[in-house]
Amino acid sequence: MTKTTLKKILVLHTGGTISMAEDANGHVHPNAENPMVSATIPLDNIELVTEDIFNLPSPHITLDHMLVLKERLIRAFNEESFDGAVITHGTDTLEETAYFLDLTIPRGKPIVMTGAMRSSNELGTDGIYNLLSAIRVAINNDSRNRGVLVVLNDEIHSARYVTKTHTTNISTFQTPTHGPLGLLTKNRIIYFHQDTEHQQLNVESAKGKVPIIKAYAGMTGEIFDMIDIDRLDGLVVEALGAGNLPPQAYEKLKPLLSQEIPIVLVSRCFNGIAEPVYSYEGGGQALQESGIMFAPEVNSQKARLKLIIGINAGLKLASLKSFMEN
Ligand SMILES: NC(=O)C[C@H](N)C(=O)O
């Protein structure tokens, strides 16, 4: 008979729809008592330690909350011998917290994030099922060294690529271009892909003014004139296609580049990888040659977090560029 060892898992509740309930008017809001705390999890050989670290809708989550989560997880693994951690979180900004933790905590023990699209007392609520799935993934030995994982609706996604794609559907979390890392079946956890390693930086702060600006047809770039360059720490531009800008918008970025403000480019396309392809005016080749950094496989909200982490780690332009481009 094989002996199964007891796994000690830390469950951190942060709020979101998974912790909310619907009232008689159909309005969904947070509760004083988090219904997930009393949820029955039908799994053997686990010791669950549950903490209500926050009780916030995820649009209220800031980078300071992410830093608190990071510190709590590092302590849990280094000093309290936890074998893994599960975080419940609102879905609106779940991908950002997941990526922040992925970039700041060294890989090793599983960290799994989950949430719900239907609150705790709604018909067809997905909260407890997703929590159970996340715990199953966290206790699975194959989940080690994969970075932060996002588990909802029987799918396992990597923090770097996953994104919320639908306002209400329970299959909202998708990984464009690559597809999920793995799946949960009734009895198994199956991984199909291995996410590639990337550099982690254990920052103590996450400060900085880094807006995101989206490109569009006919963009003249006047928006860049409205930015107070002296207060700006960096900029993320959601460019067109493979990574191109209308010529007038590109012109307006030149003064920022000459002041050594880091500018990071991502594509506004849902699928694919941003790279310098075109040599016409405003094309990706010219943008890269002028010093704009390409963040090839992340969306703008994740590129922004990565840039803030790089800046707070004290990276100067050349090392910031290699951090952002890998
Ligand atoms: N499904 C959800 O959790 C959405 C909610 N607005 C939140 O992110 O807190």
Automatic annotation (TrEMBL):
<dbReference type="Pfam" id="PF00710">
    <property type="entry name" value="Asparaginase"/>
</dbReference>
<dbReference type="InterPro" id="IPR037152">
    <property type="entry name" value="L-asparaginase_N_sf"/>
</dbReference>
<dbReference type="InterPro" id="IPR006034">
    <property type="entry name" value="Asparaginase/glutaminase-like"/>
</dbReference>
<dbReference type="GO" id="GO:0006528">
    <property type="term" value="P:asparagine metabolic process"/>
</dbReference>
<feature type="active site">
    <location>
        <position position="91"/>
    </location>
</feature>
<feature type="active site" description="O-isoaspartyl threonine intermediate">
    <location>
        <position position="17"/>
    </location>
</feature>
<dbReference type="InterPro" id="IPR004550">
    <property type="entry name" value="AsnASE_II"/>
</dbReference>
<dbReference type="InterPro" id="IPR040919">
    <property type="entry name" value="Asparaginase_C"/>
</dbReference>
<dbReference type="InterPro" id="IPR036152">
    <property type="entry name" value="Asp/glu_Ase-like_sf"/>
</dbReference>
<feature type="domain" description="Asparaginase/glutaminase C-terminal">
    <location>
        <begin position="209"/>
        <end position="324"/>
    </location>
</feature>
<feature type="binding site">
    <location>
        <position position="58"/>
    </location>
    <ligand>
        <name>substrate</name>
    </ligand>
</feature>
<dbReference type="Pfam" id="PF17763">
    <property type="entry name" value="Asparaginase_C"/>
</dbReference>
<feature type="binding site">
    <location>
        <begin position="91"/>
        <end position="92"/>
    </location>
    <ligand>
        <name>substrate</name>
    </ligand>
</feature>
<dbReference type="InterPro" id="IPR027474">
    <property type="entry name" value="L-asparaginase_N"/>
</dbReference>
<feature type="active site">
    <location>
        <position position="17"/>
    </location>
</feature>
<feature type="domain" description="L-asparaginase N-terminal">
    <location>
        <begin position="8"/>
        <end position="194"/>
    </location>
</feature>
<comment type="similarity">
    <text>Belongs to the asparaginase 1 family.</text>
</comment>
<dbReference type="InterPro" id="IPR027475">
    <property type="entry name" value="Asparaginase/glutaminase_AS2"/>
</dbReference>
<dbReference type="InterPro" id="IPR027473">
    <property type="entry name" value="L-asparaginase_C"/>
</dbReference>
<protein>
    <recommendedName>
        <fullName>asparaginase</fullName>
        <ecNumber>3.5.1.1</ecNumber>
    </recommendedName>
</protein>
<dbReference type="GO" id="GO:0004067">
    <property type="term" value="F:asparaginase activity"/>
</dbReference>
<keyword id="KW-0378">Hydrolase</keyword>
<dbReference type="InterPro" id="IPR020827">
    <property type="entry name" value="Asparaginase/glutaminase_AS1"/>
</dbReference>
